[in-house]
Amino acid sequence: NDNQTALIMIFGATGDLAKRKLFPSLYKLFEKDKLSKNFAVIGVARRPLTNDEFQQSIKESVKTAIEKEDRIDEFASHFYYHSHDVTDSASYAALKNMASDLDNHYQLNGNRIFYLAMAPEFFGSIALHLKSDGLTDVRGFKRLVIEKPFGHDLESAKELNDQIRTAFSEDEIYRIDHYLGKEMVQNIEVIRFANAIFEPLWNSRFISNIQVTSSEILGVEERGRYYENSGALRDMVQNHLLQMVALLAMEPPIRLNTEEIRSEKVKVLRALRPIEGEEVNKYFVRGQYDEGTINGKTVPSYRQEPMVAENSNTETFVAGKLLIDNFRWAGVPFYIRTGKRMAAKSTKIVIQFKDVPMNLYYQTEQPLNPNLLVIHIQPEEGVTIHLNAKKAGTGMEATPIKLNYANKGIDGINTPEAYEKLLYDCMRGDATNFTHWDEVALSWSFTDKISDVWENHVDESFPNYKSGTMGPKCSDELLEKDGYFWWPVT
Ligand code: NAD
């Protein structure tokens, strides 16, 4: 398959992402023969390294991530290194020569993938240089893979997009949202559209509310400088959470191809009711973590973390109520929440169905449980359906039961697989699981209205949740107002 022949240029090849995710994922593709023998990788980063040293670091990164690595020497021999300051024009000429040599040597047909795995402030200027210094003048395909964050708000995202569009057309741009590479996120679509029992119920008549949670135990770690300028809304809601909502809410596409799926997702984002001005604090709440105990250890508050202001107004938690104003979803709240230093690491979707019209089983002390469909995205992967069934015994009492499907055990190897799939898709030219500019723009215009309010009003309650809990009280109150509560994620 010709498309899998390519030169992959990784900018930021000594960075954390490259080591932890990209190299191990490429190795897995190589091992499964999903990568053509005709491939070469140029690692680009600032630090001076010889090819040997670079290949050594590739081997180490693969060995750290994967136990089996029989073909590691052969794999690593395809890697080359170029020490390069991305702001220095002269250096692009050398990079260009190296690329054409490898193109000839490995018969790569002029196919090139440029992967930007480095700080976003460089994205625009790298793209401009790739064009002006001739690296994108190729016989084959050229593709740009770009990491998050894609801009800081709509305006900066537009500016970045204009820069990269001078060198790449929209269909050559692969904007990574690694959630879209996760097995169970991709499964949302299959569960909905390959089963007769869900789609007929998938609307406001039968669904009472949908809850999307993505919680982390980790705090901000070493990323204080970045996070202070970002916060949970930009870091998680604008991309990952809105993408999951779009997949849950979209209409069945007429075909499972990139264009059709994207256009359905875009329609959901267009139907998202804008929340602005005074409405913001009614529909969205924010939190910032205080000290607390996690796994028996005391952890510091956000404001005590390195590179964080001692009076920081940055949110490390967001919960919100989204409304999708279309025929299918009118009136159904989509509750989303995400945060750091929470009680569990968990990404989960709960679809809560409406109650049966009349409860015939009130002799039990409790009211009937509603039916739930739970999609477990990480760390465990699977699907659970909550039903009511007869309680064993002489009476006619109902009791909740669960039908459980576990995709596999607790992960650890889950995340590299997202990158493995996304890299493979990119090699084949399948952009379905990457975000289109229209989605990026609509998502920013939604979250910008919230940031506008939050950035101009200091939240006096910060820090407002203890580390190791499920967030601030206002998050629970957001659902209580509507008569709901967050279904536990653990
Ligand atoms: P990092 O700081 O670990 O690595 C940065 C890389 O860029 C290094 O290889 C460094 O040498 C190179 N670099 C920096 N300045 C340079 C210059 N002037 N010229 C040439 N090279 C230069 O960063 P990271 O954690 O690997 O993240 C990279 C990108 O991926 C970022 O956009 C980040 O937001 C995104 N991302 C990272 C992760 C992750 O797990 N680390 C997850 C999702 C997204």
Automatic annotation (TrEMBL):
Signal peptide region: none
A cellular-component GO term for this protein: cytosol
GO process terms (BP): glucose metabolic process; pentose-phosphate shunt, oxidative branch
InterPro entries, per database record: G6P_DH, G6P_DH_AS, G6P_DH_C, G6P_DH_NAD-bd, NAD(P)-bd_dom_sf
UniProt binding sites for NADP(+): 12-19, 46, 85-86, 148
Reaction equations catalysed: D-glucose 6-phosphate + NADP(+) = 6-phospho-D-glucono-1,5-lactone + NADPH + H(+)
Record flagged with keyword NADP: yes
Residue intervals of the Glucose-6-phosphate dehydrogenase C-terminal domain: 190-487
EC number: 1.1.1.49
EC supergroup of this enzyme: oxidoreductase
Residues noted as binding substrate in the record, renumbered to the chain: 178, 182, 216, 235, 340, 345
Active site: 240 (proton acceptor)
One MF term in the entry's GO annotations: NADP binding
Free-text function comment from the UniProt entry: Catalyzes the oxidation of glucose 6-phosphate to 6-phosphogluconolactone.
Stated family: Belongs to the glucose-6-phosphate dehydrogenase family.
Name of protein: Glucose-6-phosphate 1-dehydrogenase
Species of the source: Robertmurraya siralis
Gene: zwf
